[in-house]
Amino acid sequence: MGRLHEYQVIGRRLPSEQEPTPKLFRMRIFAPNEIVAKSRYWYFLSKLHKAKRANGEIVSVNEIFEKNPTKVKNFGIWLRYDSRSGTHNMYKEYRETTRAAAVEACYQDMAARHRARFSSVQIIRVATVKSADVRRPYIQQLLQPRLKFPLPHRVQRPAKKAERALIIAQRPSTFY
Asked: Is 126 strand, coil or helix?
């Protein structure tokens, strides 16, 4: 179970005399819980449209679950982040089982490579990428048909603890 969950948040401005049925705005937000998801929703909505929490309401908050959480998929993530020198757009690819896990890996990667905090990274879009459309070489190398991970340095151990000797005359043979 990952730290982040994917939420669908739907909200609108409060009804008024000028606008009795305001337009609904839907967003898919990645957050650790519903409270943070609502907060991020209002943060993004205030940047995109002239709406804020004081004169708006949230209609519904639903958690979105992955259809196939056991299958490994390729995810492309479009994001923007604020660095020390400015704002940058970026496209990154990850190989994970769920969208939330891919976004969590993205936040960890951005923190490690670019020192970007959670608050300075904005996820624009997350999409599943077909194996033929993968752009990044560090993901392409994992898509080979007969991929093997060799075990080059294996130490053979005795089956039982009683058969184990404390001191052995020769070094162990660890190659095959």
From this structure: strand
Contact 30, 4 (CB under 8 A): yes
Higher pLDDT, 10 or 171: 10
Is pLDDT at 105 greater than 90 in this prediction? yes
Q: Give the model's pLDDT for residue 176.
A: 67
Give the pLDDT confidence score for residue 36 in this predicted structure.
Answer: 96
Give the sheet arrangement for strand 56-64, strand by strand.
25-31, 5-13, 56-64
- Condensed to tens digits (0 to 9), the pLDDT of residues 41-94 reads 999 999 999 889 999 999 999 999 999 999 999 999 999 999 999 999 999 999
The amino acid that residue 61 corresponds to is V
How far, CA to CA in Å, does 71 sit from each of 119, 138, 171?
A: 30, 19, 42
Task: Pick the closest to residue 53 from 76, 28, 35 (CA basis).
Answer: 35
CB neighbours of 15 closer than 8 A, spacing ≥ 6? 21, 22
> Distance (Å, rounded) from C-alpha 88 to C-alpha 48?
18
Residue 81 C-alpha from the chain's centroid: 15
> Helix or strand or coil: residue 150?
coil
User: Residue 16 phi/psi, 5° resolution?
Assistant: -135, 180
